[in-house]
Design brief:
371 residues, alpha/beta, seven-stranded mixed beta sheet, 13 helices
């Protein structure tokens, strides 16, 4: 029997399990049926994932006597917009969804965020199951209830908190991902060690390549560790008024980089977060808060696993720095006109910094761009 690990997200009256292991997709029919009851099941996925994994989900649901409605959307970050949200909502309503229906999001972060947001607003909210198919989604975006879409003003600025009823993380589906996608997802894995768990970072320095390369035991341990850490933060601070915001390490810089790149596949979310994490450490070092040795250690590890550590070439230094700063002013973490950064006092010592000045942020950006 394939070994699984279950992590519980403890929320008063709305808690749910994250089931992590091999062959979880093939055996999910009974779990879905238990939550769906007699309601309609609507699977939302994208074209790439549909070809790879929809037949297995369809078979698992058929074994539980569920004949789902299937909605297949285009793949890619650009699907996470108003146009595709409206299309998805119209399709859901056309299928005849009711309050007892359940949406099953089968895909990576884009599908999880978009389908989750649609589930949160159609009929003022129906149930959701997340079946994440990327490493990034399994350790981060499928857990915690954040849903949303991008806008011309920035990433994830329109959305809602809508917790799933269940998360099914099948590590076997990760074998179908290209290495770049796995490495990008690893950018979200390593942040959990950097934020508050130096022992996990040390484990990743030894086993990180095995996680990317496909070692099942290493993957299950890494995903379970990340999910357990996120579950604790979500349980204590569901709507991100406090410590949950530490999970945004690298994201203020990273989201600006994604916006500047036009939300295209030229820069994956995990890659942007990795670059943003290095920038957060550089900012921390520049402020005299963090030892330079810790920055060097993180940079070495990122380089060893294939993560980028510098912003991509997007134009002249001053213009690019100003453009990135402008994107940050539209970030959803802005308070009193200033973006909130997660900075570091050292490995495992993340904290929220809300006193950033434009000049010091520009200095960090210009130095990184010019390097």
């Amino acid at each position: 029997m394939t070994q699984t690990t279950t992590v519980r997200v403890a929320l008063d009256g709305r808690g749910y399990d994250i089931v992590i292991g091999g062959a979880v997709l093939d055996s999910c029919g009974e779990r879905v049926a238990k939550l769906a009851g007699h309601g309609r099941v609507v699977v939302v996925t994208d074209e790439t994932v549909a070809d790879l994994h929809l037949p297995a989900l369809r078979a698992a649901l058929a074994a539980a006597e569920i004949a789902p409605t299937e909605i297949v959307l285009p793949a890619g970050e650009r699907t996470k917009d108003f146009t595709h949200l409206q299309q998805l909502l119209d399709r859901l309503l056309e299928t005849g969804v009711a309050r007892d229906s359940i949406v099953v999001a089968l895909g990576g972060g884009v599908i999880g965020d978009l389908a989750g947001f649609a589930a949160s607003v159609v009929l003022r909210g129906i149930d959701l199951i997340q079946i994440p198919t990327t490493l990034l989604a399994q350790v981060d975006s499928s857990v915690g209830g954040k849903t949303g879409i991008n806008s011309a003003h920035g990433k994830n600025l329109i959305g809602s908190f809508h917790q799933p009823r269940l998360v099914l993380a099948d590590i076997d589906v990760l074998d179908t991902l290209p290495e770049r996608e796995l490495v990008a997802g690893y950018g979200e894995v390593v942040k959990y060690g950097l934020i508050a768990d130096p022992a996990f970072l040390a484990w990743l320095e030894e086993h990180g390549r095995a996680v990317i390369a496909g070692d099942a035991q290493a993957r299950r341990h890494a995903i379970a560790t990340c999910c357990a850490a996120k579950a604790r933060l979500v349980g204590d601070d569901e709507r991100e008024h406090g410590r949950r915001a530490l999970l945004n390490l690298g994201h203020t810089f990273g989201h600006a980089l994604e916006a500047e790149s036009g939300f295209t596949d030229s820069l994956r979310h995990g890659e942007a977060v990795a670059i943003g994490t290095i920038l957060a450490f550089e900012y921390s070092v520049a402020l005299g808060l963090c030892p330079a040795e810790d920055l060097a250690r993180v940079r070495r590890h990122f380089t060893a696993v294939g993560l980028p550590t510098a912003p991509p070439a997007l134009g002249a230094v001053p213009r690019r720095a100003q453009a990135l700063l402008a994107h940050m002013t539209h970030d959803k973490k802005v308070r009193d006109g200033r973006p909130t950064f997660v900075l570091m006092r050292g490995i495992g010592q993340a904290f929220l910094y809300r006193d950033a000045g434009d000049r010091e942020v520009l200095a960090v950006l210009e130095q990184a761009i010019a390097a």
